[in-house]
Amino acid sequence: MVMALTTPADKAAPKARRGMMQRYAADTAFMTFVAILMAFLYIPIWVLIVFSFNDSRSLTWPLTGFTLEWYEKLWNNSQLQDAIGNSFYVASCATVLTLLVGVPAALALHRVNFPGKKVFRRLVVLPITLPGVVTGISMLNLFRVLGFNLSLETVILGHATALLAVVVTQVSARLERLPKSLEEASADLGAPPLHTFLHVTLPNIRSAVIGAGLLSFVLSFDEIPVTFFLTGRDNTLPMYIYSTMRRGVTPEINAVGTLIVLFSLILIIGAVIATRERKK
Amino acid sequence: MASIIELDKLSKHYASIAAVDDVSFSVEDGEFVTLLGPSGCGKSTLLRMIGGFEEPSGGVIRLAGQDVTWTPPYRRDVNMVFQDYALFPHMTIGENIAYGLKLMKLGRTETAQRVTDALELVGLHDKIDQRPHQLSGGQRQRIALARAIVRQPKVLLLDEPLSALDAKLREQMQLELKHLHEKVGITFIMVTHDQTEALVMSDRVVVMEKGRVAQEGSPHLLYDHPRTPYVANFIGTTNFLDGQIARAAEGTARISVAGVELEAVTDSPRRAGEAITLGFRPEKVRLLSEGESGENEIPGEIAEVVYYGLGLRLAVAVAGGGRVYVDSLLPDRLADTAVPAVGQPVRMALSPGNIFLFDAEVA
User: Fold this and answer.
1) B218 CA: distance to closest CA in chain A (Å)
2) Domain-located, residue A233
3) Number of Cβ atoms within 10 Å of the Cβ of B363
């Protein structure tokens, strides 16, 4: 009996070892690939951060020393600060505006059946596939026809329109996954439609709304083509950086970039905390 | 007793299809009524119209004498237990149950008291601070019930409430629901496709077929006096044989079927020569032993024997190509001795009162 039990195990051992070796090799190859991918994605950002503290105007190796000079310059550069302020203003307003229009639009698309609904759904999403140049020129023409003066507000309108697609697709996707019976149960328990929306629908699509909002904010923050056509005298941050680029990349720009990376990191952490899904 | 729900010529059409077609019936206060039928027979649509989630294409719904046909669900004094329970995932169990009470603008102490009472009623008071995903299917089911009855509605609607549970739990919940109905005294209207559920739980069953009411009545009535082959087949198992009336008299008829003549009780007048479909339950058929004789003897030959623990089901081939199922419990004697063998000739007996007669064209 004992013999019978040990024999197959002895035979199986080398096979198992070989299998393990193979799996180890495959794992190593895969991990190497992941490491290269991550390096490809993040090394440029590390270069940016490192040079923002480097004690030299020229962006060349080797590093010469540590300095906060570029951050100090940034602190005193009112043009740059205006540009950052404008970018925050535009991105915030565009995000709020696009959420205010996009969330109800997604709800309407989800709830109401009307002729041409499918076409409408496609039309809402279409602008995301249009090049920004086209969106920019067409909105410029429209604003001219309407007699608007170009300003940051026209930029906001342009961004909000272009970003509507992002919000509608994200929120729609979440609504599709929300069982219809939840809203019905709420109505059944005596809740009028608005109460149902605030207490049942909204809490369940909250993370999608926050996610779409953050994405909109970031997209608007670094948007160039539409901004290029629609802005008046004021510049947003990417436009300012673009215009200074004629003099080459300055360490100051690196400092701004580093600050933006830091800010993005805070946003991402905030988003993760805010949208953390409860364990199912 | 007064009718709590009255449906008057209620219809629901989707494009050209009639999901519910000219349905009228009423439900007494405190009754447990089941809408029974296969999927697509319109039973759920009917329930959803009573709840206010579907607008009827025609007809009137009255709740406690008042026309509520066009009243939105949030102003109807009925509550529903949804098939998927529809518990709010972002709220605790306590908040789920209090949701409907807060909307009734009850005081804080009364709300809390009622929530506790409802949880006591379903035996889950220790779950008040948990979230729906932490509970088992059966527990969620009970919370859905508690959330619906805590508002003390005039009518409780249950949409296939037990279909998501496993067989054992389902059986247990059937009785629990029945007891709950007796305890709270609210009118229950349940939708199910499970005939056992309907028979076990309800005072009255409404069998639906293609959007119409096929027959309604007590479980007894439906089982013993089905009006159509559809009802006979949907509730329990029924043997069907085609035959012809040989002679008809007041209240009885002789039918030639499967090479013999059978006597049957009939409540509608029959003409000789009329084609007829004859139905009877497998458990009403008695196998005759050697030398024994009985009413309405039918000879046949055993074609198949199925053992299912509680008893035996025999398929008996009869003259004319038909097959008759015979259910018999296994008495000790039979279990020890002779389980009938395939191919063995048998004689069956059937009392005239246990035969249903259906017009042939209905079948």
Assistant:
1) 29
2) yes
3) 17
What are phi and psi for residue B319, nearest 5 degrees? -60, 145
Are the Cβ atoms of B79 and A189 closer than 8 angstroms? yes
User: Minimum mean pLDDT among B125-129, B229-233, B286-290: which range?
Assistant: B286-290
- Residues A19 and A135 grouped into a single domain: no
Q: Is A185 on the interface with B (CB under 8 A)?
A: yes
**Element housing A103 (H / E):** helix A78-111
Would residue A24 count as lying in a domain?
yes
Q: How far apart are CA B350 and CA B239, in angstroms?
A: 12
Q: Is the pLDDT of residue A241 over 90?
A: no
**Residues of chain A contacting B90 with CB distance shorter than 8 Å:** 203-204, 278
For residues B242-247, average pLDDT? 87
Check the CA dihedral B85-B89-B91-B94 and report its sign: positive
Q: What is the mean pLDDT of residues B78-85?
A: 92
Positions of E strands within chain B: 3-14, 17-28, 32-36, 58-63, 66-67, 78-81, 155-159, 187-192, 204-209, 212-217, 239-248, 252-257, 260-265, 275-280, 286-288, 298-307, 311-318, 323-329, 345-349, 356-359
Cβ atoms < 10 Å from Cβ of A149: 9
Candidate from A117-121, B130-134, B252-256 with smallest mean pLDDT: A117-121
Residues in chain B within 8 Å Cβ distance of A192: 74
Please provide residue A191's backbone torsions phi and psi, each rounded to the nearest 5 degrees.
Answer: -90, 125
Please tell me whether residues A123 and A167 are part of one structural domain. Answer: yes
Give the CATH number for residue A199: 1.10.3720.10
The residue written with tokens 């940016």 in the block is A48
Domain extent, residue A128, equals 75-275
Is residue B362 within 8 Å of residue B318, measured between CB atoms?
no
**Nearest residue of B to residue A195 by CA position?**
B103
Give pLDDT, residue B333.
58
- Are the beta carbons of A189 and B151 separated by less than 8 Å? yes
| Contact between chains at B133 and A184 (C-beta distance less than 8 A) | no
Q: Which residue type occupies B296? A: N
Task: Report the complex ipTM.
Answer: 0.82
**Residues B191, B251: one domain?**
no
Chain A positions touching B103 (Cβ under 8 A) are 189-191, 195
3-class SS letters over A31-84: HHHHHHHHHHHHHHHHHHHHHHCECCCCCCCCCCCECCHHHHHHHHCHHHHHHH
- Do residues A152 and A268 both lie within one domain? yes
Its domain, for residue B229, covers 3-233
Tell me which chain A residues have a C-beta less than 8 angstroms from the C-beta of B132: none
B228 and B113 in a common domain: yes
A181 and B86 within 8 Å at the Cβ level: the answer is: yes
Which tokens is B262 given?
A: 């059978």
Specify the number of domains making up chain A: 2
